[in-house]
Amino acid sequence: MRERKMNGYLIVIIVYSVAMVGIGFLLTKKVTGAVDFFTAGRSLSGRMLFTTLLAANIGAGSTVGVAGLAYKFGISAWWWIGGSGLGSLILAFWVGPKIYQIAKLRQYLTLGDYLEERYSKYFRSFISLMMGIGTLAIFGGQLIGIAWILKTVAEVPKEVGVILGAGVVVLYSVAGGLLSAAGVNLIQVVIKLVGFILAGIAAYITVGGFSGIMEKSSIIMGVNSTQQIQYFSWDGIGITVIIGFFLMMTPSFFVSPGLIGKVYGAESLEAVKKGTAWNGVVQLIFGFLIVFLGISTYVMFPNLANPELALPTAIVELMPFWISALALAAIFSAEVSTADAVLYMIAGAWANDIYKGVFNPKVSTEKLLLVSRVVMLIGGIFGILLALKLPDIISSLTIFYTLMSVSLTVPLLFGLFTSIADSKGAMISSVVGIFITLYYQSPYSLTKGIWILNPQSTGILISFFVMLSYISYKKLFRRN
Fold it and tell me: Is the pTM of this model over 0.85?
């Protein structure tokens, strides 16, 4: 019986994967150059922008990763998604509209185009290098998520799962870039939302609702024990960790080159605001559902060796086959849709920002399209190698979010909303922030940050004060 179910799950994944690749290649005909590949011809409505952003943001971290955190730490795992949802709302109402208007006027393809004109090609190259390295890590994280799914439902080895996942994502992403991704993402979001809602309902019935969770957790931890109280406390994971989530995740969701690139693809300013805002709201609500699934898995299976197997285990063990098959497709969609957004970022960083921005500024749009596709293929290979080396999803995401938030947050905000920030200040603040973060993460540091802040949040705050100090010095120097 179990073998029959496993075969059924594999059939669902195979059929779904073939469908995504097929849709991606069908949309290839509409891609005639780099503008279509990177910005979907600036044709995305508010609804399409909403689906492609939500598809990118509900990935391995916010599903398998957060469920694993909830399995281990309880309800306070929600703050991971809380930070990302807040970042999406900032992108919707402040950062997104501002940079969209500039990008549409100047015909930018990537965030790097903006950084070069606002600061310099050297700063653009520096940030692109950071993003090029960081995006490979997050792509590896999405592949790990796919591998955990295949391992749980069909006992597929991690190595095989990573390669299969990379193959699906690379095939349809290389075909049409953002245009293909947006088309596929529409289907993925529907599958995700329906699948996870049904999974939540099935898990709720199986565990006996909230009262059943409390009763089962009391047996495992002890009635009103310190462990149980902490598990169901909003600060159970620790104030330092929660602050770290917000200072790492929130900026990442309004400075991400991948998300800003999707905003560039909007058809209007109104589409930017509505599509991005609804994406943030749905993320915040969705987080409660994933946390509930992680906690439900803990009270039913408290001895999992790997917490990141909590969500796949819940899907397989806590619900009927037809619901679990749909939920499995939803998880698979979550990992794949974020992975295609990451591949898009890899192409933007290495092809448009480094190859075109540094080595071949006069490259034709057709050749840039070809280079972008080659970069995606190479990025897929490196992503596989990283996924095989990295221990878990959260570790890989932390590498990416750290590099992105620390290096980009201060220069982007000061660049958009002030006129005095320049290339030197941007470079100094970024480099100092990254150096401070790496120092506090190293074994040479006696602490892991200043006061209750973790390395990433410490790096961002010091980067902010460095930029302020530089601007103050610049003003003083001009006066004298």
Answer: no
